[in-house]
C-alpha cells in the first residue's frame, strides 16, 4: 500500500481555479468516500481551505491512482485536462512530509498560522466518520498531529512579525504595555496606513481618527475603520489626545515638525507618543524623535526590523523541518 497526495494551493493555482475544487466542510467526509471510488484507492482524506484543496490516498499503485484521479477530476469539474498543471503530486515520504508542513503552518500564506491545524483535524475526522480511512491514513494523520504539536511547542514559528505594519504594532505594544483604550490618528488615507491601523484595532486600540487632505476620503476610511474623520487643518488639536500617529500622506516635505509636538506636550501631560512614519518622503521631521517621551520610527527602520524578523523566522523553518524529518524517519509509518 502506497501513500500519495494530489493537491493545489495558493502557490500553484489562482483563486478561480482553486474554487472549482473547493469542498465545503459538511461535504468533506462524503467527498473522501467518493475519492476512494474515483481513484480506485483503499483510503482517502480531503483537505479543503480557502488556500488549498488536497487529496490524500492510500492505494496499491500510486502512479495508476494519480492518473485515474486526475482524469476523473477533469471530467467531474468539466475543465480542460491542462488544469492538471496546477496540481502537485507527492508520494510516500514526500507526501507525509508535505502534510506535516501543512499542519505546522509552513505551507500557509501566513507562515506559522494556527487555524490550519484545526482545519486538517476536521478533515481527517470527517473522512474517519465516513469510513474512508484505514490503517495507513489513520496512523499517518494521528502521527502528524503529534509532530505538529511538537513543532509548535519546541519552536517559535508562530512568533514574530514579518510585515512592516505588524512590526509597528509590536513596537507600540512594547511602548504602552498594551493597546487597550489607546487612541490612534491616521494622517493620510493610504493602504499601508489602513492596514497598520486595523492591526492596532485588532490589538485593542479604542478610537481611530482619520485626517486627509480630501475630507471625503477621510470620511470613507473613518467609516470603514469605525472611527472619526478630522479636517486636515485640525490634526494638531487631535494630537493632544492620541497615543499613536500613523502618517503616510504623500506630501513632498515634512508635515509634522518638532514645534507641532512641543505645542501638544503640555496638554498631553507628557504622556508617551508613538509616531509611525511610513511615508516616502518622510512626513515627520526626524527632530521629533529627539523629544523625551516621543518614539519615532520611519519606514527604513521598520523594514530593517521586519527583515530581522524574517531572518529569525527562516531559522525557525529550518528547525521545524529538522524535527519533522527526524520524527517521520523514526516512526516507520506504513505507506511511506
SSE layout:
Elements (H helix, E strand, L loop, with lengths): L1 E8 L5 H4 L9 H11 L4 E7 L2 E8 L2 H16 L10 E4 H12 L11 H15 L5 H20 L9 H13 L6 E5 L3 H12 L4 E6 L2 H11 L2 E4 L3 H4 L5 E4 L10 H11 L4 E5 L16 E5 H33 L5
Parallel strand pairs: 5-6, 5-8, 6-7, 8-9, 9-10
Antiparallel strand pairs: 1-3, 1-4, 2-3
Helix pairs in contact: 2-5, 4-6, 4-12, 5-6, 6-12, 7-8, 7-12
In short:
The chain is an alpha/beta fold. It has helices spanning 15-18, 28-38, 62-77, 92-103, 115-129, 135-154, 164-176, 191-202, 215-225, 235-238, 258-268, 299-331, and strands at residues 2-9, 43-49, 52-59, 88-91, 183-187, 207-212, 228-231, 244-247, 273-277, 294-298. The chain has 12 helices and 10 strands.
Characterization of this structure:
There is one protein chain. Helix 11 (258-268) links the parallel strand 8 and strand 9. The chain folds into 2 domains: 2-154, Glutamyl-tRNA reductase, N-terminal domain (Beta Polymerase, domain 2), CATH 3.30.460.30; 164-305, NAD(P)-binding Rossmann-like Domain (Rossmann fold, 3-Layer(aba) Sandwich), CATH 3.40.50.720. The model has no long low-confidence stretch (mean pLDDT 89). It is elongated, with a radius of gyration of 26 Å. The strands form 2 sheets. The chain has a 6-stranded parallel β-sheet with strand order 7-6-5-8-9-10. The chain has helices spanning 15-18, 28-38, 62-77, 92-103, 115-129, 135-154, 164-176, 191-202, 215-225, 235-238, 258-268, 299-331; strands at 2-9, 43-49, 52-59, 88-91, 183-187, 207-212, 228-231, 244-247, 273-277, 294-298. The chain contains 12 helices and 10 strands. Helix 7 crosses helix 12 (299-331). The termini are close together. It has 336 residues and is α/β, with parallel strands linked by helices.
Amino acid at each position: 500500500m502506497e501513500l500519495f497526495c494530489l493537491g493545489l494551493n495558493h502557490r500553484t493555482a489562482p483563486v478561480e481555479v482553486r474554487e472549482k475544487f473547493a469542498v465545503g466542510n459538511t461535504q468533506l467526509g462524503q467527498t473522501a468516500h467518493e475519492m476512494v471510488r474515483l481513484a480506485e484507492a483503499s483510503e482517502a482524506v480531503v483537505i479543503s481551505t480557502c488556500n488549498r484543496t488536497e487529496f490524500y490516498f492510500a492505494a496499491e499503485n500510486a502512479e495508476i491512482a494519480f492518473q485515474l484521479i486526475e482524469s476523473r477530476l477533469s471530467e467531474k469539474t468539466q475543465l480542460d485536462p491542462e488544469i492538471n498543471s496546477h496540481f502537485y503530486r507527492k508520494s510516500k515520504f514526500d507526501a507525509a512530509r508535505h502534510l506535516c508542513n501543512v499542519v505546522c503552518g509552513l505551507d500557509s500564506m501566513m507562515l506559522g498560522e494556527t487555524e490550519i491545524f484545526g482545519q486538517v483535524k476536521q478533515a481527517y475526522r470527517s473522512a474517519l466518520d465516513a469510513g474512508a480511512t484505514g490503517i495507513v491514513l489513520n496512523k499517518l494523520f494521528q502521527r502528524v498531529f503529534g509532530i505538529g504539536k511538537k513543532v509548535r511547542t519546541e519552536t517559535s514559528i508562530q512568533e514574530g512579525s514579518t510585515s512592516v505594519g505588524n512590526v509597528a504594532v509590536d513596537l507600540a505594544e512594547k511602548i504602552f504595555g498594551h493597546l487597550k483604550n489607546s487612541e490612534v490618528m491616521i494622517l493620510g488615507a493610504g493602504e499601508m496606513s489602513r492596514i497598520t491601523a486595523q492591526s492596532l484595532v485588532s490589538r485593542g486600540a479604542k478610537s481611530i481618527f482619520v485626517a486627509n487632505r480630501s475630507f471625503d476620503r477621510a470620511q470613507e476610511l473613518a467609516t470603514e475603520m469605525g472611527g472619526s474623520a478630522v479636517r486636515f487643518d485640525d490634526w494638531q488639536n487631535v494630537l493632544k489626545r492620541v497615543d499613536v500617529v500613523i502618517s503616510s500622506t504623500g506630501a513632498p516635505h515634512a508635515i509634522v515638525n518638532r514645534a507641532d509636538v512641543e505645542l501638544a506636550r503640555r496638554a498631553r501631560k507628557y504622556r508617551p507618543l508613538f509616531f509611525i512614519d511610513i511615508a516616502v518622503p518622510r512626513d515627520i521631521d526626524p527632530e521629533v524623535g529627539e523629544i523625551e517621551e516621543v518614539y519615532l520610527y520611519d519606514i527604513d527602520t521598520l523594514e530593517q526590523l521586519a527583515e530581522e524578523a524574517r531572518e529569525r523566522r527562516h531559522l525557525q523553518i529550518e528547525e521545524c523541518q529538522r524535527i519533522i524529518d527526524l520524527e517521520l524517519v523514526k516512526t516507520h509509518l506504513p505507506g511511506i
